[in-house]
Amino acid sequence: MSRDVLVTGVEQFFGEDELIVSKTDLKGRITYCNDVFLRIAGYTEKECVGHPHSIIRHPEMPRCVFDLLWEFIQGGREIFAYVKNRCKNGDHYWVQAHVTPSRDRSGTILGYHSNRRVPDRDILESAIFPLYDDLLKEEQRHGNRKEGLQASKQLIDDFLCRKGIAYDEFIARL
User: Fold this and answer.
1) Confidence of residue 5 (pLDDT cuts 50, 70, 90)
2) Crossing angle for the helix pair 129-140 and 63-74, nearest 10 degrees?
3) Global model pTM greater than 0.90
4) Which residues contact 39 (CB under 8 A, 6 or more apart)?
5) Burial of 93 per CB tally in 10 Å (0-12, 13-18, 19+)
6) DSSP 67-95
């Protein structure tokens, strides 16, 4: 993803009773997205289906969170994560994402399914914003993106180690 993406700093919101849904293939290309996804992200179905899910990736999201997400789902595990997404016009919206592998009858992973709900604002402000700010600063402190990613992964590993819990337990306790 280009580092020169438009961001406005304007937050968009969706309803507490709404659910953003998308599905991807194994490479992360969108195979389905519902109307709530299209409305909040500002894209048409044609602009999304067949394109990388990263089209909504906000540049202020720590890369290590996506690295962790891919590690979980490619390993056949579900994951819950708080994610700041970017709208087509540069606005953003926060979600609490639940991403799971989609399998065939034999258990082979065919793709991934994500449901996103409105996140608890208190959790965002008290736990996620400070953590993501630290992770992002660590990534940006390194001139080499790969080294930045490794450093932020170490930072979150150290954070979880100090708490004595795994990532999924940390998210569940928030």
Assistant:
1) confident
2) 100
3) yes
4) 14
5) buried
6) HHHHHHHHTT--EEEEEEEE-TTS-EEEE
